[in-house]
Amino acid sequence: MLRFITFRLLQAIPVVFIVAAATFIMCRQIPGGPFDSEKPPPPEIKRQLESFYGLNKPLGQQTLDYLWSICPKKFMPHRLFLDANNDGRADFDLKAAFGSDFGPSFKSVRSVNETIADSFPVSFQLGAMALAIALLLGIPAGVAAALRPNSWVDYFASGISMLGVCVPTFVMGPILVLVFALNLRWFNASGWFDFKDQLLPSLTLGIAYAAYVARLTRGGMLEVLNQDFIRTARSKGASEGRVILKHALRGGLLPVISFLGPAAAGIITGSFVIETIFQVPGLGRHFVTSAFNRDYFLITGTVVFYAALVVLFNLAVDVVQVWLNPKLKFE
Amino acid sequence: MNTPAAPIPNAPFVPDTAFEEAEQGTSLWKDAWARLRKNKMAVFGAGTLVFMALFCLIGPFISPYTYDAQDLNQYAKPPSAQHWFGTDKLGRDQLTRIMYGGRISLAVGICATMVSLTIGVLWGAVAGYAGGKLDTVMMRIVDILYALPFTIFVILLMVFFGRNIILLFAAIGAVEWLTMARIVRGQVQSLRKMEFIEAAIALGLSRRRIILRHMIPNVLGPVMVYTTLTIPAVMLLEAFLSFLGLGVQPPMSSWGSMIKDGAEVMEGFWWMLILPGLFLSLTLFSLNFLGDGLRDALDPKASKD
Amino acid sequence: MTRLRITSLLTIGTLAAALLFTGCGQSKSQVDSATENQILLYGNKAEPQGLDPHVVEGVGEHQIIASLLEGLVTEDPKTLSPIPGQAEKWEMSPDGKTYTFHIRKNALWSNGDPVTAQDFVDSYIRLLTPSLGSRYSYMLHCIEGAADYNTGKLKDAAKVGVRAIDAKTLEIRLNCPTAYLLDMMAQHYTWWPVHIPTIRKSGDPFTPGNNWTRPETFVGNGPFVLKEWRPNNVLRVRKSTNYWDASTVRLNGIDFLPIESVDGEERAFRAGQLHRTEEVPAAKIDVYKKENSNLLRIDPYLATYFFRFNTTLPQLKDKRVRQALTMAVDRKAIVETVTRGGQQPAYAFTPPDTKGYTSRAQVKFDVEGAKKLLADAGYADGKGLSVEIHYNTSENHRAIAEAVQQMWKKNLGVDATLRNEEWKVYMATQNATNYVVSRAGWTGDYPDPSTFHETFLSNSGNNRTGWDNPEYDRLVKEAACMVDEKARYENFQKAEAILLDELPLLPIYYYTRVFLLHPSVKNWHPTFLDHHPYKHVYLEAPAK
Questions:
Q1: pLDDT tens digits, residue range A139-151?
Q2: Widest pairwise Cα distance in chain A
Q3: Closest C-alpha among C44, C50, C212, C52 to residue C137
Q4: Is A123 part of a structural domain of the chain?
Q5: Can you tell me the ipTM of this complex?
Q6: What CATH number should be reported for the domain holding residue A289?
């Protein structure tokens, strides 16, 4: 297993670098630059700014400079959670820990490293809660539906989960705010200050994913429950609970796990829509606003960070898949 | 198939043909079709979809309004005899816009899903079956494509090719096939270890035949389920693009963009959200039932007794 | 059996959660507690990109910086006219070209350092230093030598017309008498000083990207100090004890909350989280007018919404075509049925009553006249005229563009197409004059007609229409150095008459600031620039 993981991590390196280079080059191809605005700076000033940020060098040179700058140059993971700027909160300092410098931002005095350090922990909290809600709601619903296919339980669970799929987050969010924040006055309508503020956004995001989890669980469980070894277990007198938990769930959850890998990376880097509706200071907004601002280093920085997460989560998913299905071997 | 080998002594005479009629040789697909027809929910789903398609294709020809005719005096009127579904903020008839919007949403849903299905299933099946270096390279390519920023990609396409609706299909399809590939690969990997595949290999069947005739039909179950999830995801991705301003361009509408507009004004003008939402939900529910029916029908392990 | 267990667990769980949260219901809203503590909760729309007045360019940033820094002169809360700020008095030379400012003895920075004339000199030189790349450095070009220093032609900073005569006396020499100098100084942050030693501690003061505006390091001379800054979350400022006029300041602090979603902000206001919002969702304006008009504020704003014409194109070269297109637009209908935000239809470019100036020249809504002009120009019934309306992607711009498209079709028979582009692409297109008709907006930097007229000078980077008129240029440039207000305004009247006859632009409406304001906020007077000097603002809970 160790060899498998090491191998995959080694493969991850060219993946991340290709993504970085491709993104860096891609975002230069669209018209509009970081300094274009309604009251644009005079040409001399624009030239000054471009040369300060190195934007006037040939694109190949810039790409190579950038790749070198984000390359990890040391390995001190204990420094990841230092409080470098003394603001009382632990930072997620990639530069201190690994020597990766993602460059400056054109729109903000904060560097890309600082922006990721500020916003990733928030996205992580939001994402982890949403994922937990999705699994806690979705898996039992899917299992219940699969156990009694085409019964009222099935229709109810499938119906509710389908509703979760059909109702987009930008509709669900405001509805929840209307009910719980404005009418019942249990929560704030937006902001991210204490624990209570985290509930509505996580719930909105979680419900959306719970629907998918429920559908996939139901599908996977139905597949497994039809198989002979389940029939054998039942005929041998195993209780329903034992059948589900010990025998069926391993195989039934396979499609969910495959789906969850990239989905988890997506949830954890934040959902732009949720962050906009609830004003959550997470990483998701930066994916979109940096593109609209042509903030090249921030675009590439967030993308690289996301790519690294996706690779890690996919690796985790593959490992879990093999663990759940011992017939597969690490290859 | 039961054909009596030799007459049983002292048994009543039963002509041979009776047995032949009882069980016909049948293929997987014919079998599936028969089972599908018996599934009431699936039939209901299919029927609703046909109705939706007709509603959206033919409706605009019958409607007295066009989708882009503005009447500033009819600002946001609720449903009435004159406008059955009310009007929007520029005085346009909502019913007609829902019909037009349905065309676009259904087209995006179907086309993008077809694209993602084709590429995703083939890619995942080949990767899962082949294993080894090919699998590694193919899945790393999936990782790379997955990480590339979607917003930039869409802006790039819009800039280079103009605001084309076909582009929307291409962009969305290009993103959705990746997860499909991963799911199919997972399934194929576990199938590969099964005895019937080992038997097929032992029999000397070509890889192409094994993948196309044996692997893919067996992964159709989860694939069907995921497809019924992909279509709504595609439609909602289109709505998200509208949220950003990159989706369908006005005066064209889609259910996604109408729902997004309606969500902003839901407290004052409920019909702008509820009605397109209802149509979208109904379509997706029907797709869901149909998909479930297809999955059940295509499951070769489901017993016939 | 399992099913029953799961169901019962879920039910108990839900009930428990419901009970827990009912108990946690908020009895007193955030707004009410904040009012008691004299903390203003300010919805500021966008996360500030920075707080360095020499580097930033946004409105949201201005609102925050106005609490942290003060210039030589500051604004009167009702009229925004210049009143003594860091300077207690000043003199102007008879030729109007030299100003001498006397800085207060008790003017202090927040770290206790006295505010000196040299601080101002150093700040202005920093702003004009080419390597800093400041977008607004052109605001200081009225100072002798400033333009040359800014563009790198002049290398010696000592030759720029700012000089510290002694620690508390500052001399500024101008190229020519500038009527609106004191207004600019009061209202625009480029004229406010920064604490150079502080900037130096965080790096090179003369390059961008210096991160000195952090709460731990920020030093300012205004009524408040920077307490806390959590990006995309909240920015808190608290009363400064070193501010010379601290006794006048009644607020204890301001919390700036960057809520980007317009609907989200309105919900936050209703949930009692804000005293003031930045905007109101268009669909809700009528609702507030009917049900809660005491919460809604609609203030006139010094900005104009217009379309630019690309005058280099063959079909728009003839001014009769531009006039016809302009006269066929029913502005009243647009502001009443499309935008609905209390905006005023614009029949000129400069908003009316800009520091007493109202344009006499006006455009008209005249369909018959428009038809005739179009026919005279060779496009009878709109045949053969191809026009495209270009705008940046937005709900509001789209609605207006579609309305104009319909009006041109109905009134002139002209078929216009629409093209929208994402913001940056749209900017690049407009800057390259790659459009036919393009939507635009222009906000005045200070209340004076020059801030509008200078836009259409032939050498202005903000012109973007390819239009030039030597007489217009002459009038506007001459007015820049005139002292007599009557004569100056006469120049602008003549210039505007030329502008509205040749029409490189199609004026549509004058902006308004529409926002929600909690009744406990006092001294929040409507001003043309939406500036509300915080040292006069206070909170008082409305009598029950």
A1: 988 888 888 877 8
A2: 84
A3: C52
A4: yes
A5: 0.87
A6: 1.10.3720.10
